[in-house]
Design goal:
The chain is an all-alpha fold. Helix 3 crosses helix 4, helix 3 crosses helix 7 and helix 13 packs across helix 14. It is globular and about 65 Å long. The relative contact order is 0.14.
Length: about 500
């Protein structure tokens, strides 16, 4: 029996809010260290770390996230989407307590690994839970909420660090912003018991009655487990599971082989947007933005924090814009234009850093603002939804976990080298990011099939139809009714017969 009184849009909104809080916490963690690492009290407590140690303290968190993603790869399917998020939050709370009480470098480093492990688990489970719970016509728009809340976390941490810095030389100046991480995890743990597990995960583990109840809850207040739309959606999912099981039981090696389900193709395509996210250079700026302004441009610490906070607020506000067009424009289009725009911004940032005059410094700041905006319109949201959309149900947990692992491993490299690169490479660092962003454009155009306005089961059919290589699925699916499937078109009868594969009703 599925617990909870929420139904329809209210239930979907509650799931989106909970997932959003998990990604708000993720965004907060990205910015919090950059806001406190230059504080005198922090530097005194940790023996005035040099640039190499700053990189280690910052980047070691990403190693924890990588370990969490690998743990999700190994055990995430066992615990389910909700169970994984619960354990991720518990681990994050433990790590936060240890970080807040740290008295020396070793404790801070170990505690950041632990906190990162919890976040790594969450960043695997949250996109899957959300993608598997929403209908195709609004799946992308709802996933925009989580990417927008990543953007909100960054200014929140910056402004909280700025406010607490007024208490210098007390260690409260850096301990409170770090301790505040635990607040979000506690709220998530409080909400989770009132929300259902992913219906697709339940169905794939032969808990069909529970899955049907969840489909009914998600459908709306008037739906029951015997409603034609609920039964049609359930049967469509069960048909997909049946087709996957005909291949045989999932094995560890299966994800690295192509096979009839094109497993390795999906894994590689799913990992790509996660890598685009990191190798765009976003976290070269985001993690150490105050330090970038302070050391590159010679601005004061307070002004650097204020500018970072203002940038973060703008980043959050503009990151909502894809909500209105990502389903109509499609994942491919927004990714291509976002990558091209980010490349252009990095070119101008590099030129301004090379000129290095007072006027060019402010142009540098302006295009940092614009870079964050353009990044949030395409690369940010697509990177966190695409892998969960294109992975087959039987291997979705492992595929997403591998993608997230690539994300965090890349994040570690970027964050570790950034403090030294700012000092040694100067403008050349931004030239590297510009070239990488430009390379994402042809990669996306030629190899990435469009997933917008398609059910997860229809996306399976794309990969069964297309072979590895250049894709021919370049436009969003037809505009569909708000219900995911139409029972009559599916060939369903009142007795609940199995639908014909791929027969889904569309509106042109």
């Amino acid at each position: 029996m599925v617990k909870g009184n929420l139904r329809g849009s209210t239930l979907r909104g509650a799931i989106a809010t909970t997932c959003g809080l998990a990604f708000l916490l993720f965004g907060y963690d990205q910015g919090v260290l950059g806001g406190v690492i230059s504080l005198p009290s922090f530097r005194k407590d940790f023996d005035d770390p040099d640039e190499n140690m700053e990189g280690i303290i910052g980047a070691i968190y990403d190693i924890g996230c990588l370990l969490g993603a690998l743990l999700s790869f190994a055990q995430g399917e066992r615990f389910g989407r909700k169970g994984s998020i619960m354990w991720g939050c518990i681990i994050m709370i433990i790590g936060t307590i240890l970080q807040t009480s740290a008295q020396e470098r070793v404790q801070m480093i170990i505690s950041r690994i632990i906190t990162g492990m919890g976040n790594g688990i969450n960043t695997c489970a949250v996109p899957m839970w959300q993608a598997e719970s929403f209908k195709s016509h609004n799946r992308g728009a709802m996933l925009i909420i989580q990417s927008a809340l990543i953007a909100l976390g960054h200014p929140l941490s910056t402004w909280l660090s700025f406010a607490s810095s007024r208490s210098e030389p007390s260690t409260f100046a850096w301990r409170f912003p770090i301790a505040f991480q635990g607040f979000f995890a506690i709220v998530i743990l409080f909400i989770l018991p009132f929300l259902p597990e992913s219906p697709r995960w339940l169905a794939s583990h032969d808990r069909v009655e529970e899955a049907t109840e969840v489909f009914a809850l998600l459908e709306g207040p008037n739906a029951t487990i015997n409603s034609p739309k609920v039964l049609a959606e359930r049967d469509l999912v069960l048909e997909g599971i049946r087709i996957e099981r005909e291949v045989g039981d999932a094995t560890w090696s299966e994800i690295f082989t192509e096979g009839p389900m094109r497993n390795i193709s999906r894994v590689l395509l799913g990992v790509g947007p996660y890598l685009f996210n990191q190798w765009s250079g976003i976290n070269s700026l985001a993690y150490f933005l105050p330090i970038t302004f302070e050391r590159n441009l010679g601005l004061s610490r307070d002004l650097s924090l204020i500018l970072s906070g203002v940038l973060g607020i703008q980043y959050f506000l503009v990151s909502w814009l894809p909500y209105f067009f990502i389903e109509r424009a499609g994942r491919r289009t927004v990714m291509i234009w976002s990558s091209a725009g980010c490349s252009l911004c990095m070119v101008i940032i590099a030129v301004m850093r090379k000129i290095n005059t007072p006027a060019s410094s402010w142009v540098f700041v302006a295009f940092c603002f614009l870079f964050f905006d353009v990044f949030s319109w395409g690369i940010l949201p697509v990177s966190w939804m695409y892998s969960a959309e294109i992975s087959s149900l039987r291997l979705r947990n492992k595929s997403v976990a591998l993608g997230v692992s690539g994300h965090w491993l890349s994040n570690f490299v970027v964050v570790y080298v950034t403090p030294m690169a700012i000092r040694n490479l100067e403008y050349k660092l931004y030239v590297i990011w510009a070239v990488l962003c430009a390379s994402f454009v042809p990669i996306t155009y030629f190899f990435y099939p469009e997933t917008a306005r398609r059910t997860l089961e229809e996306i399976d059919e794309i990969f069964l139809r297309e072979k590895f290589g250049i894709t021919h699925t370049r436009k969003p699916g037809p505009k569909r009714r708000h219900s995911a499937v139409d029972p009559e078109i599916l060939g369903r009868n009142d007795a609940g017969s199995t639908p014909e594969k791929g027969s889904i009703k569309h509106e042109d």
